[in-house]
Please model this.
Amino acid sequence: MLFETSAAVPGAGPPRAAAPGPPAGAPAVRPAAGPRRRAAAFARREGGPLYAAVRRGLAARRLRAVPVTLAAVGLTGACYLLQHTPAGLGLVRDAGFVRAEDPLWLALLRTPLSLFVPALDLPVWGALAQLLVVFGIAEIAVGRRALLAVACLSTLAGSAYARIGVALGPDALLGLPASDARIADTGPSAAVVGVAVWVCHRYRARLTGAAVVAAMVVEAAVKPNLAGKEHLAAIAAALVLCAGDALRQRRRQRSPSGAPGSSERSGAPPIRSWRARRGLAHLRSWWTARSVARALARGRLR
Model:
């Protein structure tokens, strides 16, 4: 017949069987992600929450979200300008220069301002950029109180290490030469490093925090001066804070929600006992419930 198509074509061979497909209801197998997708996914896990928090804060309040950061940048710039005037240099030296040979009470009094006094041998734009970026992110991400607390603690840790290292002497493991006692300990670098480690801990950016710590270790190894060692002391203080915060979070997670002293509460309203509702309010609620029950019963009987 003209329309018959079932006849075998000479030399074509036997017909091939169709490839078996996936069983019904089986999930579709996605192709393996390429290196770009894996890198993007890792970047979202590492810095996504922090980026989202900073973006929301800036979108909602703009520059009003970082008043402490702007004040720190302005104060650092003012100290830099004063340092380059004959009368201002003495004022800044008396109010913000911290040395290990100074009395302890005087060093503690000068420490808050020393954070905003840029080092004379370093470009001021580096200190301003550190404050603007790291302090700005931290102020939005963890709040002003945490920012100031961690910054002051990191600066105090660096200054305390300088005094302890000079007291130990150059022969000790962590000791410093006596000449370091006359070096002015100023600048925001120790505070910036400590704040960066704290923010990475709070937002679980572990790789970024490890990179900050590794960079400071390499700096101290390549250029073993007082500033590099103070950075390591600031990191040690920040890591102690991180360990304490992690321990507190673990205890909070382990404690039951209903146990006394637990900070986590369920969304259910508090339970009020029958005895606590005695009086007119109790009688009124009881009478309302009785009336509703009678109305429902009448409707059923009808």
Q: What stands out?
A: The domain at 46-245 is CATH 1.20.1540.10 (Rhomboid-like fold). The CA atoms of residues 284 and 290 lie 10 Å apart. The radius of gyration is 34 Å.
